[in-house]
Amino acid sequence: MLLNILFTQLAQIDTPDKYGAPFFNSNPKEGIKGVGSLVSVILSNVYILAGVVLLILFLWAGFKMIQSAGTRDAQKAAEAKNTLTYAVIGFLIIFASYWIIQIVEAITGLTIL
């Protein structure tokens, strides 16, 4: 009963539409805001995709390392180590690009992401 009242109250809170229509103003019929909003949405999604790819590469490289340790194959172990190294380097590049954008936003006052 108490949860019913609580959830009914929470249902009345007006929340902003953060992800519903990123390219439009408050009225979708007004049109696209511009290229900047398109780039902003694409970059935000690229960061998410990069995180997922990093996780997959970590798991894959870990599996390859375990597999190469079982067969005692030095070449497969080196390939797994290279995969892990390149995944970390790629992550650092993506991480640095995100923070460079954040610094540019702080200095210029523009909203990029």
Using DSSP, what is the number of strands?
Answer: 0
Spans with pLDDT under 50 lasting ≥5 residues? none
| Overall number of domains | 1
Helix content: over 70%
Give me the Rg, rounded: 22 Å
Shape descriptor: elongated
How many distinct helices? 3
Strand content: under 5%
Element-by-element helix/strand order = HHH
Structural class: mainly alpha
Overall mean pLDDT: 78
What is the straight-line distance between the termini? 42 Å
Biggest sheet: strands, sense, closure?
A: none
Question: What does this entry look like structurally?
Answer:
There is one protein chain. With 113 residues, this protein is an all-alpha fold. It has one domain (33-113). The chain is 73% helix and 0% strand. The chain is built from three helices and no strands. It has helices spanning 2-11, 35-71, 74-108. Helix 2 packs antiparallel against helix 3. The longest helix is centred in the middle third of the chain and has 37 residues, at 35-71. The two termini are 42 Å apart. The mean pLDDT is 78.
Please give the structural blueprint.
Layout: H1 2-11, H2 35-71, H3 74-108
Helix pairs in contact: 2-3
Short description:
This protein has 113 residues and is an all-alpha fold.
Task: Label this structure with key terms.
113 residues, mainly alpha, 0% strand, elongated
